[in-house]
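Journal club side-thread
Mid-discussion, someone asked how the predicted structure for our own chain would compare to the paper's figures. Pasting it here so we can look after the session.
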Amino acid sequence: MPAYRSEAETEIRAEVVDHLRHHRPEARIIHEINAGSFGNRIDVLAVSPAEIIAVEIKSAKDKLDRLSDQLHAMRRVSHQAYYAVHEKFLVEYKTNQFTAHYERDGVYYMRDLPKPFRHGPAWIYPRRVRSANRSMDNLARWRIENMRPATSLPSGSIGMLWRDELYALCGELRVPVRKRANMTEMQNALRWNCTGRDLTHGICAALRRRECCEADPAVTEMGAVE
């Protein structure tokens, strides 16, 4: 565990990684990766050959004040973006007997995230049933969408690649660029000359084979571990 990471965060991160591995066994898990030039670092990234899932983690020691910006940045570079948050952030709402988590003085209540995040793609930690009516307890479920075939990555995802990775991708996709082309030039050339399918596969392949400080072993285009 890196020195800067708290035990509280590590505990949630382990659960997140297990969840991603269960639903995307082919994905490479990468920790702490920059979301391009958007000024945010993504806590956990699951990179499949044609899909990227991003997850932000909020432990009991964190705050939610930057979550909106972090979600925006993750959505600009991934197919799916989730936030895994500790249950300490849940607040109380009045409800009815069918959706209640508990009753107090004849009034029914449920707990959920604050309004800005209440209906978002949240995973509440720890995963446990909080209502007598299990079928209505959405907080107990960590939903994850099925992989959507033939769906290209958002245009901002190319910003996650380093300069050398962009240059290599231009060569792989036969996009002509100057040897000393800067990142913006190469990004524009790739967007102009390539299909969404080409870029999605190329970006995913580059991230899957990148040497990272904290990640699963690098994976080559052919699927072999380096």
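Post-session note: The mean pLDDT is 91.
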